[in-house]
Design goal:
It is built from eight helices and four strands. It has helices at about 25-35, 40-70, 95-120, 125-145, 155-165, 170-195, 205-215, 215-220; strands at about 10, 20, 75-80, 85-90.
Length: about 220
Amino acid sequence: MTGSDKPIYEFRGPFGVPVQIQPGVLLLFVIFLSFSGSPSDLVYDLIFVSLLVMSIFLHEVGHAWGCLIQGIPVRRIVLHAGGGFCEHKRSPSPYENELIVAMGPIVNLVIWAVASMTWPLFGNGDLSWCVWVLSYINLFLAVLNLLPVHPLDGGKLFELALMRVLPPQTAHRISGGVGFVIALIWIPAMILCFFTLGLVLFFIPSVSAHWEMMRGDDLRRRT
């Protein structure tokens, strides 16, 4: 994933990695806060979105750690309305990429495990609610990112796993076929999640991109 918007803020994150925040992050806050009712709801919604952005940031820090531990320099971490991405300075090998990709969901799962075990210790106050929300957000991010559809981590991991037993071109086409099926049912599933769970997703996988992957058209254009 790449971002074209100029960052509105930049700082040095963990491991000294530059972190850029794009304008879309502010849009994310505006969208969520626009549904707030009373002032108390506004505060809780602000906390929710802040925890969401922080969890996405830590997810990308996981990717950065997966790069740095293998000696792959990281150019930047970018946060935008649809999530974020970690950009490295050289292309990793498939084996290196396995750890890099996996570390994002692993970080979310670790946060979920710690938060879900500790939130009852804080009683019934606001702090307990914040820890519970942090647990819920990170479990959701982990499950979402592990779906075998591109460009999510699950799609990349699925293709990398196939590459261990199949030729890269075959693995790429199978991954595209599975992603194509998921992309077709994504919008109906998203509508169902909104009306049953109140979840709003700002990411829709590309049906055409997965169709090209399945047919191998994108591979032919590269050669």
